[in-house]
Every structure is written in C-alpha cells, then in structure tokens.
Amino acid sequence: MEKRRKCVVVTGFGPFGEHAVNASWVAVQVIVHVGVSSMATMVTLEKCGHNQGYHGLDVRQFCPDTECCVVGGPECLHSVIDMDTICKRAAGMDVQFTVSTDAGRYLCDFTYYTSLYKSQGKSVFIHVPPLGKPYTASQLGFALQTIINSILDMLEQSEDQITCHQNP
C-alpha cells in the first residue's frame, strides 16, 4: 500500500505590538499558491495578478461588488520571482512548464493579486492541469517541489535585493 504524503501549509504574520518586523514573516520568505485549471495541459507559472475584471461568482456564489481585489490598487502586480527563469530551470523534467500573464480573473487570479499586494510581490501562483490530464499526482508533486526549491535558491542568491516588509 502506497503511503500518502502529507500537505503542509506554512504561514507567517505581519507586524504586531512591539515587533515592527515579525520574524515569522521573514522566515517564510515567499507565498506559494497552487490551483487547478481545466484548460492547463502544462504546469503554468503565473507572472502577475490582475486587480479588475471579476464578474463571475466563485464556488460560494460571491463576487466583489467593486469587481476588483483592492479598490484603488494598481491594475497589475508582478511577482518579484522571475518566473521565466524558474521555467527555464525546470526544463528537462518529465513534466512540461509554461509561463502565463493571465491567471483567469477568477478565484486564482483574485487570490494571487491579493497575495502579491499584501506580500510586496513575494508570492507566486502555479496552475496545474487536472490529475491524469496528462500528469500523475506524483509527477505534479515532484514538479512543484522542484519549482519551490528553485524559488528558494533564487531568493538566497538575491536576498539583498528583496526586502521583507508589509503594506501599511
């Protein structure tokens, strides 16, 4: 019988009380979101999130009245992670990768934009295809692990260039 792997979600928190810089936020480094896309045939690395154009209801029948993520926020926010470089580093695996600039103006894009806004760009969003179309859970898991390791390597190499601070 195959042993099931466990999923771990790691979070950090912003400033509070006397702690202008919360060590938990600094230790987390980057936020990684993963979502399924029925249109995806490859693992898709999203470069940016969009603020406006949310017309469709989510699974709980909710859509923001303003049809945007952050009222007055910029139209598009990009990740500080160079997704083109991450995509190139992942080449050669048994899973194919691509880069996108449109996460779909649905829950994934909404989540990504909001995360980019709150984290000063220190977030990424990865779309995966449905299981078996064409990859197994094991293949997708290994691909995600490879991407996350590449992101962490990139952050270590450019630690001085990326600052950890929150929006007010």
Could you explain how this protein is built, in words?
This protein has one domain (33-157): Aminopeptidase (3-Layer(aba) Sandwich). Helix 2 crosses helix 4 (137-157). The protein has helices at residues 23-28, 83-90, 107-119, 137-157; strands at 31-36, 43-46, 48-50, 76-78, 97-100, 123-128. By secondary structure, the protein is an alpha/beta fold. The strands form two sheets. The chain has a four-stranded mixed β-sheet with strand order 1-6-2-5, sandwiched between helices. The chain has a two-stranded antiparallel ribbon with strand order 3-4. It is globular. The N and C termini lie far apart (50 Å). Residues 162-168 have low confidence and may be disordered.
- Give the H and E element order: HEEEEHEHEH
If you compute it from the alpha carbons, what radius of gyration comes out, rounded to the nearest whole angstrom?
17 Å
The unreliable regions are: 162-168
For the secondary structure, the number of strands is 6
- The secondary structure category is alpha/beta
* CATH topology description: Aminopeptidase
Q: Order of strands side by side in the largest beta sheet?
A: 1-6-2-5
Helix content: 25-40%
- Percent of residues in β-strands: 15-25%
Number of helices: 4
The averaged pLDDT comes out at 87
Instruction: Report, as a whole number of angstroms, the end-to-end distance.
Output: 50 Å
